[in-house]
Design goal:
The structure is a homodimer of 311-residue chains. Chain A has 311 residues and is α/β, with parallel strands linked by helices. In chain A, 39% of the residues lie in helices and 18% in strands. Chain A has a 7-stranded parallel β-sheet, with helices on both faces. The longest helix of chain A has 15 residues.
């Protein structure tokens, strides 16, 4: 294993990002890796603060994530959720019994006045994760999907309505007043390289970019920003990115994503199947790098991570 | 099954009370039974509102209580609690996964501004319980045990410290400002008979009596108040009643309890083993009734309930 001692900062969402993050975690010194995670997905359910992307990343690096689903905890049970349904509570958002402990703990600490970033730090430490995991902001910035069925929280769109409504707009409620969490801007400023994980550009990377100061800070580091494209061969690696790109009037292609990132990205990483888009991407003022970005196996995750460190 | 149509109101705590309450529930029309439950045991843990006695009574009547322990839910699992311990949270108070759903639901409703009695009503209804279950008060009135190890919440004394500290005093914090929950005084006023369940006189019945107006209302119904003694042969039927009586300078006998209840009780029910105390009890200005009060089987519970209705 090659240990890379230069500081690395990665921005990402949940399942898609975690594949690359696990690769990075394993091929480099995890102590010099910092992960900035989307919290636009966060939602209050049953009075509990749920942070899906933070938990997916943390559980993945802790080695306890459900490997089949990519979220939740391996072999978790759902006894509490079934009982919550008996009480008439919504059960469309899956909450395992062990997973609930995370939400209960986080909610209790928030109630005691702790910040989300202090809590994320204590959770990743308790679970033995050696890498710093920062929420993008300590302020709630819920992602609201404007759709043909009206406005709804992103989780309602994705999980309850299975990404079926037609998206006509996306907003991050309150983001203008949000502050980057402590360490976020510094982590971008001080890293040798910054990676944008292959996450949904609108609802995973988009909220992070929208936090005041973040996009500007990335622009100032453009040369060292490497973005891994989440669209391969015109399809999302994971989730509804392709559909959202099309519905919002963008091309559901690597080039379509590259246009969204061109102002702050130095190198845009595409899969070999999209090599014919490399020239058009470079015309946007970025380098195009061609690397296998489909990560189904652990070996593929490590290989892409290693390649990104060596580009 | 004889269905008794006169209104019955019963006051009680948790495990001890539930034995008699289950008997009553089964031998009479449950729709005319009202149960007033101690909430001095209530505690906030992990940011969740736990109401042990309310839950024990509700789970018992719903037929889902753990029959071996007398509290918690049958065949419940403890996955969340184990994870809470990983996060460094106290795990001395057992919280099963299904049971947690009750606490999560209740806490969420409290946060939405519902009262404890509204919530108790919705929980018992969701679980199919046909009897009204009223918390003694919607205001928190935590029972504080003053002991040789200092002051501590009752649950800490009972569960964490296994009732080992020597009790030197008991107080119900804030009880002077507490209001009886809606329906409590009416249920005592309007019942044909009022039963005091065989619960700990200090920490199960005591808090209910301390809620302003309750003891006075019971006194005005003295003739129709039937108290079942929780001490049989000088020993508690359940829990630390005997020890607490002795430590607080009372006799750990049926007579010792009778003295605590004499001002509001018309008939004091003792077990045949204590028949020799009947005369001394009657000298306190009550009738003494002798009935088998040890309820290990369902038949014994029903038998005592039936006998109380026919006294």
């Amino acid at each position: 294993m090659s240990l890379n001692k230069q500081k690395i900062t990665a921005l990402g969402g949940g399942v898609g990002a975690s594949k690359l993050l696990l690769g990075l975690y394993e091929v480099m010194d995890p102590a010099v890796l910092t992960i900035i995670v989307n919290t636009g997905d966060d939602i209050m359910l049953h009075g509990l603060k749920i942070c899906p992307d933070l938990d997916i990343v943390t559980y993945t690096l802790a080695g306890i994530v459900d490997p089949a689903k990519g979220w939740g905890i391996r072999e978790d049970t759902f006894h509490a959720l079934k009982k919550l349904a008996v009480y008439g509570r919504a059960d469309w958002f899956n909450l395992g019994d062990q997973d609930l402990a995370t939400h209960i703990h986080r909610s209790a600490l928030l109630e005691e006045g702790k910040t989300l970033s202090e809590i994320a730090e204590s959770i990743r430490t308790a679970l033995g994760v050696k890498t710093r995991i920062l929420p993008m902001s300590d302020n709630p910035v819920p992602t609201i999907i404007e759709s043909n069925e009206g406005a709804m929280h992103f989780q309602k769109y994705l999980v309850k309505r299975r990404a079926e409504p037609v998206v006509v707009g996306i907003r991050f409620a309150g983001v203008e007043q949000a502050q980057p969490a402590p360490g976020v801007l510094e982590a971008i400023r001080e890293a040798g390289r910054i990676f944008i994980c292959p996450s949904n550009p609108f609802i995973s990377i988009g909220p992070i970019l929208a936090v005041p100061g973040v996009r500007q800070q990335l622009r100032s580091r453009k040369r060292d920003v490497f973005a891994v494209c989440p669209i391969v061969g015109g399809k999302s690696l994971k989730g509804p990115s392709d559909k959202m790109l099309a519905q919002l009037g963008y091309e559901a292609t690597a080039l379509g994503v590259a246009k969204l990132y061109a102002d702050f990205t130095g190198t845009f990483v595409i899969d070999p199947v999209d090599r014919r888009q490399a020239r058009a991407i470079e015309e946007l003022g970025m380098k195009a790098a061609i690397l296998p970005t489909v990560m189904k196996t652990r070996a593929q995750k490590r290989k892409l991570a290693q390649a990104l460190l060596e580009l």
